[in-house]
């Protein structure tokens, strides 16, 4: 990390600069389980952190408040599921299946009809970046857990890393902010967990570590390595168990030189939980975005099977992870404040 980057992020997390707002027509949607009358289908992805004209980012706190301060959700514990990683690797595509699961309440064949196009977060095939900043889906999903308590579930999309328009410091800022504010961060990778993937992760999380103020808990919560297009089935089978085996090998410190050992120890100490899931190739039509509708017939059967398994492992009623700060659950109202103090206004 450059000294300039360290100074910038430190200033962001501790400054009391006034926020700049822009008008936003954001509604709060209450999608309750077992109450179809309250289910709203016209939600949208709302930019809450967006690029400004000065080459940095700004926060739309007004949008956060409109989404999360409704009387039915403001005091509910919040679950924030975010997806981050390199650009053009299917993050928004994946989030739309999260959205489909939440809207169907996880019941029956929630993957949908064969002819149903994939809707929600905007996605497409191609080589250019598609998402910028940080987006939050403006439907808040109220879920009743097995103990009878309710939590509010949010879905977050992030700008892809390593495009040709964004600096490394800006990429680190987006990744760190989404990791700090989420309860589950999905680290979306292509084909394998490479050494540079671990180096990038450690670099990005160092930004976030600087915003933490001590405490006995790991600075971040659950990180899921999602390896897309995994082809090495002779080494590890698709799914969670194969993924955990690969992750254990990648993070093993035995026989590593000192630098590689330190990197792995830092990653392990940064998160309260680390796991991995290996996904098969989705099929040529999905991979190329032709056509860009995401209908089930475009996908390989093995991909659909493991997609179902992965989504349910994150969003099932008994799998949800609430956002915690120093071990204490955070409500939607508290999360707005927590996000706001990590305001982004980097000047280059």
List the helices and strands and how they pair.
Layout: H1 3-14, E1 29-32, E2 45-51, E3 57-59, H2 61-68, E4 78-85, H3 91-103, E5 134-137, E6 139-144, E7 150-158, H4 168-181, E8 184-190, H5 195-211, E9 220-228, H6 240-251, H7 258-270, E10 271-278, H8 284-288, H9 301-315, E11 324-325, E12 328-329, H10 332-340
Parallel strand pairs: 1-6, 4-7, 4-8, 8-9, 9-10
Antiparallel strand pairs: 2-3, 2-5, 5-7, 6-7, 11-12
Helix pairs in contact: 1-5, 2-10, 3-9, 4-5, 5-7
**Overall 3D form:** globular
What is the first-to-last residue Cα distance? 15 Å
Number of strands: 12
Helical proportion, percent range = 25-40%
Classify the oligomer. single chain
CATH class: Alpha Beta
Unreliable segments (pLDDT under 50, ≥5 consecutive)?
Answer: 1-40, 124-130, 344-348
Please state the second-level CATH architecture: 3-Layer(aba) Sandwich
Task: Output the radius of gyration.
Answer: 19 Å
Can you write the helix and strand succession as a string?
Answer: HEEEHEHEEEHEHEHHEHHEEH
Mean pLDDT rating: 80
What count of domains describes the coordinates? 1
CATH topology term? Rossmann fold
Strand-residue proportion:
15-25%
Please tally the helical runs, counting DSSP H or I stretches of 4 or more residues.
Answer: 10
Q: Write the CATH homologous superfamily.
A: P-loop containing nucleotide triphosphate hydrolases
- Decide which structural class fits the backbone: alpha/beta
Largest sheet, described in full?
Answer: 10 strands, mixed
């Amino acid at each position: 990390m450059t000294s300039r980057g360290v100074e910038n992020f430190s200033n962001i997390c501790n400054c009391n600069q006034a926020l700049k707002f822009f008008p936003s027509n954001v509604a709060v949607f209450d999608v309750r389980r077992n109450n179809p009358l309250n289910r709203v289908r016209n939600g949208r992805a709302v930019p809450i952190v967006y690029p400004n004209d000065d080459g940095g980012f700004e926060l739309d706190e007004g949008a956060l408040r409109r989404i999360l301060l409704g009387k039915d959700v403001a005091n509910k514990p919040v679950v924030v599921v975010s997806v981050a990683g390199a650009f053009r690797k299917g993050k928004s595509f994946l989030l739309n299946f999260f959205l489909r699961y939440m809207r169907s309440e996880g019941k029956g064949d929630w993957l949908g009809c064969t002819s149903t196009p994939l809707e929600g977060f905007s996605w497409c095939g191609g080589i250019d970046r598609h998402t910028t900043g940080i987006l939050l889906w403006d439907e808040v999903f109220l879920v009743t857990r097995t103990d009878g308590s309710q939590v509010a579930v949010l879905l977050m999309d992030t700008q892809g890393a390593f495009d040709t328009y964004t600096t490394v410091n800006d990429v680190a800022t987006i990744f760190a902010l989404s990791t700090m504010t989420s309860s589950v961060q999905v680290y979306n990778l292509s084909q394998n967990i490479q050494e540079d993937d671990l180096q990038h992760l450690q670099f990005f999380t160092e930004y976030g570590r600087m915003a933490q103020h001590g405490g006995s808990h790991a600075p971040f919560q659950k990180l899921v390595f999602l390896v897309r297009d995994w082809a090495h089935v002779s080494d590890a089978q698709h799914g969670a168990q194969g993924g955990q085996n690969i992750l254990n090998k990648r993070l093993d410190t035995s026989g590593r030189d000192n630098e590689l050992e330190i990197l792995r120890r830092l990653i392990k100490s940064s998160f309260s939980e680390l796991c991995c899931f290996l996904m098969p190739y989705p099929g040529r039509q999905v991979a190329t975005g032709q056509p860009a509708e995401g209908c089930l017939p475009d996908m390989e059967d093995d991909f659909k099977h493991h997609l179902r398994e992965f989504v349910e492992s994150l969003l099932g009623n008994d799998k949800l992870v609430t956002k915690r700060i120093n071990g204490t659950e955070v409500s939607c109202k508290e999360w707005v404040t927590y996000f706001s103090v990590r305001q982004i206004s980097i000047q280059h």
